[in-house]
Design goal:
The structure holds 2 protein chains of 2 kinds. Chain A has helices at residues 3-23, 28-38, 42-63, 77-94, 98-107, 110-127, 134-139, 160-164, 168-184, 202-210, 214-234, 243-256, 264-282, 293-313, 317-322, 330-350; strands at residues 75-76, 143-144. By secondary structure, chain A is mainly α. Chain A has a two-stranded antiparallel ribbon with strand order 1-2. By secondary structure, chain B is α+β, with helices and mostly antiparallel strands. The chains are: A mainly alpha, B alpha+beta.
Chain lengths: 356, 76
């Protein structure tokens, strides 16, 4: 298949990904923060839905032979833990994870552009600058591999299925059942369910009518994730969506001018920004918003931490949580836990501690 | 028209700092008070509504006051 085909498939899937993220207001940062601050799981449920849809989808793809194998990420223990922690803190400071930051560029959030500049800065240092080799150093501190990778997995990286020697299908069924229990479980609410009061302005109803249900967002994103895998594989990367990989390719192109630095996911990232612009324009939510300078500096630092964390962990919230957990990768599950921990630590120091 | 006791402007803020500022403000307010929140990000309408729901406050009105700009009235 030609280069143009890959460019177009990457851009189109990117546009749909960005569109759904914007419309669904999918934000892992907000999901984790809502869980920590007010014990609200609405956005978290969208994330879990997207993960279980992909769990099933990826197994169908691999059993039907559409993709050759699953490709869980390597579990470099220290790299993943340290990377996850730094990424989680960076996510809060940057005002969004890597997916949130990407689609917020399309909404006109200037701070998110600043965060991406911070991200570029650290990627340059890590790839051709003074930090070259830092990942290798951390990776050298320990890796977990398995001898028998079990069905569907190409490498020797651990997954929940192959460390216990269980068929992935059985695990997926168990996880789906647990998730459905979680979705239907009602947690205690103090106030009344917010019903939007009738006003003379019809748009106020509309904005909430346009607000997607968490499960609609989750399913739609899951479908894009499933579709992306074979297109990404056809373009030469046997992997699901990873925004860090896309942005890294893009930064490589911007630095060297060599178009070959761009990978399929780089086109997906570009498409995402366009998709978000389209969605935000249709919803009348496109607007240039510039935070105060103190906040912009904070977002730059956040972007640096997002980049550093993703370099160490070899993936961002999307590569690991969104695409890696559906493959049951142990590295991605641990990454998810440490991103959450990072977010919790910074929230503790900024907010919870002050409660007294 | 309800007169707010306090106004919190989180326009040009970023994700989660709007909500953190809202939570901090809510702690300083007395029951029965009205808080007006100005925001320019649609996601925060849903999230601030859920804060009200969780904390037992009442959303009185959500009005669009400009391009991607809203005013939320909350009764403590």
């Amino acid at each position: 298949m030609s280069f143009n085909f890959h460019v177009i498939s990457g851009l189109l899937l990117g546009v749909s990904f960005g569109f759904i993220l914007q419309r669904g207001r999918f934000c892992m940062n907000s999901a984790f923060m809502d869980t920590i601050l007010i014990k609200d799981f609405t956005i978290l449920k969208a994330i879990i839905t997207s993960i279980i849809v992909q769990m099933i989808g990826f197994l169908i793809l691999v059993t039907s032979g559409i993709i050759s194998s699953l490709n869980p990420r390597p579990f470099y223990v220290v790299s993943i833990m340290v990377g996850g922690l730094i990424f989680g803190i960076g996510m809060v400071l940057a005002g969004g994870c890597l997916s949130g930051t990407t689609y917020r560029i399309g909404e006109g959030m200037v701070g998110s552009i600043i965060a991406i500049l911070g991200f570029f800065f650290i990627i340059i240092l890590a790839n051709i600058g003074v930090l070259t080799g830092i990942t290798n150093f951390f990776n050298g501190l320990g890796q977990v591999t398995v001898i028998d990778s079990g069905p569907f997995v190409i490498n020797n990286n651990p997954t929940l299925a192959n460390i216990f020697g269980i068929n992935p299908w059985i695990l997926v069924v168990i996880i789906v059942v647990i998730s459905i229990f979680f979705f239907t479980w009602k947690n205690k609410k103090l106030g009344e369910k917010v019903t939007i009061p009738k006003t003379s302005h019809k748009w106020s109803d509309n904005i909430f009518k346009k607000e997607w249900n968490w499960w609609v967002t989750g399913i739609a994103l899951g479908i894009v994730g499933i579709l992306a895998y074979p297109f990404s594989a056809a373009a030469g990367q046997n992997d699901a969506i990873c925004l860090f990989c896309g942005w890294e390719g893009l930064s490589g192109f911007l630095m060297t001018g060599n178009i070959n630095q761009m990978n399929w996911l780089s086109f997906l990232v570009i498409g995402m920004i366009f998709g978000s612009v389209i969605a935000a324009t249709l919803a009348d939510e496109l607007k240039i918003r510039i935070p105060e300078s103190k906040r912009l500096i904070q977002q730059f630092v956040g972007g640096v931490m997002l980049g550093f964390g993703a370099v160490l962990a070899n993936g961002c919230n999307i590569g690991h949580i969104f695409s890696g957990i559906p493959q049951l990768a142990l590295s991605s599950i641990v990454m998810g836990v440490f991103i959450f921990l990072g977010a919790w630590i910074i929230t503790y120091f900024m907010f919870i501690r002050e409660k007294g | 028209m309800v007169e707010p006791n306090e106004i919190l402007d989180v326009r040009n803020e970023i994700c989660t700092f709007r909500e953190i500022k809202t939570l901090k403000k809510l702690k300083q307010m007395k029951p029965g008070n009205i808080l007006e929140i100005l925001t320019d990000y649609a996601l925060s309408i849903a999230r601030i509504s859920r804060i009200a729901e969780k904390k037992g406050h009442l959303i009185l009105a959500i009005d669009k006051i400009g391009k991607s700009e809203w005013k939320i009235l909350m009764k403590i």
